[in-house]
Design brief:
Strands 1-2-3 form a 3-stranded mixed sheet. The radius of gyration is 21 Å and the shape is flat. The longest helix has 46 residues. It is α+β, with helices and mostly antiparallel strands and 133 residues long.
């Protein structure tokens, strides 16, 4: 009988942990969507003056402790990607400040921002070119 109770208590702890994990992942996803939306607006406003340049935020991931935000950016035209990414990384503190002013009522701590180029569209174009041959 004692073994059965111990097994049941282990299962209830596992279920609780699984529920907490699901709640944490849900929170991460909600915050990631919020940050993606706000970063998209920020980049849209900043690139408005640069004719022929578009920066879109394709994917955002937030660390479990909500301290780091990893954003993948798609840059058009892709030839200027490195130049624009260098400019974005140089001004990441300004972008974080702007993000903080926009989400200050939803988040207590604004996460550190890390930006990466999302080159999946270039990869798809490359595959299409190879298939056409």
């Amino acid at each position: 009988m004692g073994v059965f109770l111990a097994f049941c208590s282990l299962n209830s702890n596992f279920a609780l942990t699984k529920k907490e994990k699901t709640m944490q992942e849900t929170r991460q996803n909600k915050i990631a969507r919020l940050l993606q939306k706000e970063l998209s607006v920020i980049f849209q406003e900043q690139t408005r003056g640069m004719h022929g340049v578009m920066v879109s935020v394709t994917r955002v991931r937030v660390s479990p402790d909500l301290s780091v935000c990893t954003a993948h950016l798609s840059i058009f035209p892709s030839e200027r990607g490195e130049e624009i990414m260098a400019n974005i990384n140089k001004n990441d503190k300004q972008i974080r400040y702007e993000l903080g002013t926009r989400v200050r009522h939803q988040l207590r701590i604004i996460p550190e921002l890390r930006f990466f180029i999302d080159d999946s569209l270039d990869y798809i174009d490359h595959i299409d070119e190879l298939l056409k041959k």
